[in-house]
Amino acid sequence: MSEGYDSHGLEKFIFRDIHPKIQIGTASDRYAGWIGQIYTKGRYEISSRSNRVGGKSFKEEVLPVESIKEYFQHFSVLEIDFTFYRPLLDGDLQPTQNYHVLQTYRKYLRENDRIILKVPQVIFAQKLWRGGALIENNDYLNAEIFTHQFYEPAVDILGDLLIGFIFEQEYQRKKERISPKEYVEGLDSFLRAIPKDKRYHIETRTDSYHIKSYFEVLQNHGVGNVLSHWTWLPPLRKQFLKSDKLFYNSGKQSIVRLLTPLRMRYEEAYMHAFPFDKMVEGMMKPQMIADTIEIMKEGIKDGACINVIVNNRAGGNAPLIAKEIAKTILETVLK
Predict the structure, then answer these.
(1) I need a surface site. Which of 10, 12, 137, 180 has the fewest CB within 10 A?
(2) 310 and 322 in contact (C-beta within 8 Å)?
(3) Are 224 and 247 in contact (CB under 8 A)?
(4) pLDDT tens readout for residues 12-31
(5) Cα–Cα–Cα angle for 106, 112, 116, rounded to 5 degrees
(6) CATH number of the domain at 7-333, please?
(7) What's the number of CA atoms in the CB half-sphere (13 Å) around residue 268?
(8) How far is CA 213 from the centre of its chain?
């Protein structure tokens, strides 16, 4: 624990200096629901956007990119997820809108701020939602697209501020999924073809793919295994045990993502949590916090840095979930 960190920091929602091996951040930022916690009331011009979820339309209020400066007064890491939806460069290697937005973020980042990027789904999803239906992704595991349309421009923009790439593999229905052997072989070939880097992490959302050879591939390539508290995955403690409680990333970084309650679909979690300004009674289970703390303890013993990424949908309000995690750390890990 950094000298002087105590409960006063918690009351102010400051999580930057808890421990040198513990980084707490959120999945996305700029939520107007965090005003009064992370963001100063009346400081920013608020805009709105429409988001359609579960057949209903929601009006989300968001802050400008410049609010990232205030975000990083509270958190030490941010997962940027808008990069999931399209590469930074198009097929002609021209900048997309995401490229320009990421450049804008970079203008407001300081030397000790840290960013984790989600890799575009077109690179790592077996199927894509197009025209109201799931279709086969012809660019699945395309090393050229990853390298030239995402990796190179991302590194060029963010440099050493970029500490992680998350490759998210969507859940595969049993009747449609490829075999674990085929999945692992494809993954191994892809990792051999892309640039060598210590910042790669994979989140595989189909638990049957978590076989021995899968973890061997991660270990051979020095790629992290993302532990994700998500709808159809087992509890974090079971995921961690299945991986033999090892931290595979060769950069000694590990990522824990707290996304949704178990057995609760994205749409239901979103509708419960919206507008993300308070905790929702009964939504967050204590076991999620307890499992996260145990992973942190193991990481500290192993010398790995644990990056805990909190989503509003895990309980209603990410800053309050982070506060509960930090409080438990002070009471158990760092007492």
Answers:
(1) 12
(2) yes
(3) yes
(4) 999 998 999 999 999 999 99
(5) 60
(6) 3.20.20.410
(7) 9
(8) 24
- pLDDT tens readout for residues 26-37: 999 999 999 999
Q: What is the DSSP string of 252-292?
A: SEEEEEE-S-TT--HHHHHHHHTT-SS--TTTS-HHHHHHH
Query: How many angstroms separate the CA atoms of 93 and 91, rounded?
Result: 5
- Which long-range contacts does 61-66 make (Cβ < 8 Å, 24+ apart)? 61/31, 61/32, 61/33, 61/275, 62/30, 62/31, 62/32, 63/30, 63/31, 63/32, 63/39, 64/30, 65/30, 65/101, 65/104, 65/105, 65/108, 66/108
The tokens for 255 are: 């990522």
d(CA 98, CA 94): 11
In this structure, which amino acid lies at residue 122? Answer: V
Mean of pLDDT over the chain: 95
How open is the CA angle 84-53-269, to the nearest 5 degrees? Answer: 85
Instruction: Let me know: does 98 contact 149? Beta carbons within 8 Å.
Output: no
> Is the Cβ–Cβ distance between 332 and 21 less than 8 Å?
no
Measured in whole angstroms, how far is the alpha carbon of residue 154 from the centre of its chain? 16
Q: What is the pTM of this model?
A: 0.96
* Domain parsing of the chain, residue ranges: 7-333
pLDDT value of residue 4: 53
3-state DSSP helix/strand/coil percent for the chain, to nearest 5?
40, 20, 40
Alpha-helix residue ranges (DSSP H) falling in 34-96: 68-71
CA pair distance 139, 304, nearest whole angstrom: 33
Residue 57 structure tokens: 């339309």
Degrees to nearest 5, angle at CA 259 with 55 and 225: 130
Q: How far apart are the first and last CA of the chain?
A: 10
Whether residue 319 is preceded by a cis peptide bond, meaning omega within 30 degrees of 0, is no
